[in-house]
Design a protein that fits this description.
alpha+beta, 9-stranded mixed beta sheet, 4-stranded antiparallel beta sheet, 17 strands
């Protein structure tokens, strides 16, 4: 079956779709000996597809994991600063050659639910700007936000000259005289969005923990541990992303 080259490259774990487009634009991909072009289609069961002269192997079996990311671990496959990455938390057989990568990110100081997969097509769909998968966080902040502040947070705050989308924000309880615990539900994922908004509103974040991604709750999964998604969970994830065009 013919598919777009960038989709094939992501399916083989070579690169994300966006990265694959850059590889193709850079002339680093060939199909049957000819330099590939953006938008070209191919069949990996028939055509000889090479990246930097190396032929694609057999597409790896898709793996879907839910990880409880600890604090201090970065949500990347490689860190130039030498910090520990989420891949280092996986067993060796999953660390190399599997194409596993995090879907989206949690910053190094944040903890909680993180999805990892080598399904490049699903990653593309779930991280596409048009996709609004809700993510739920428990967030400790300095001070006690007023009702007015909570309403402003829910309705949207200007970041980078653009309002944030409406968010679910509710006060769970006071943690002390100087800290409060909030539950925040986002359907967008701008860089460090919760931390930046909280600071703008005068209540800097002291701890941020993601407890749910779409229909996937973190549950009782221990910090630093991971589990395979069930077939039903994978179907639900794919169903939630099915509204985006290929």
């Amino acid at each position: 079956m013919t598919e777009r080259l960038q989709k094939l490259l992501s399916k083989h774990g070579v690169a994300s779709r966006r990265q694959a487009e850059r590889l193709i634009s850079g002339g680093r991909v060939t199909v049957n000996g000819e330099v590939a072009r953006i938008g070209q289609q191919a069949d990996d069961s028939v055509d000889c597809i090479r990246v930097d002269g190396v032929a694609l192997g057999v597409a790896p079996q898709c793996v879907y994991l839910l990880l409880h990311k600890p604090k201090g671990v970065v949500s990347t496959c490689h860190d130039p600063q030498g910090r520990r990455t989420v891949l280092a938390l996986l067993e060796r057989s999953l660390q190399r050659g599997s194409g596993l990568h995090p879907v989206g990110r949690l910053d190094a100081d944040s903890t909680g639910a993180l999805l990892l997969t080598n399904d490049g097509d699903l990653t593309y769909r779930l991280t596409h700007p048009r996709h609004n998968m809700p993510k739920v966080y428990q967030v400790s902040v300095q001070g006690m936000p007023s009702k007015r502040t909570l309403r402003q947070w829910r309705e949207g705050v200007c970041l980078d000259d653009r309002l944030t989308l409406p968010a679910g924000v509710r006060l769970l309880r006071a943690l002390s005289d100087t800290q409060a615990l909030l539950e925040i539900t986002l359907t967008e994922g701008r860089n460090r969005q919760i931390r930046r908004v909280a600071k703008l509103l005068g209540h800097p974040v002291t701890a941020l923990h993601r407890i749910k991604i779409g229909s996937l709750p973190l549950g009782s999964l221990r910090r630093g541990h991971y589990r395979l998604l069930t077939s039903e969970e994978v179907i639900q994830l794919k169903h939630s992303a099915a509204d985006l065009s290929t």
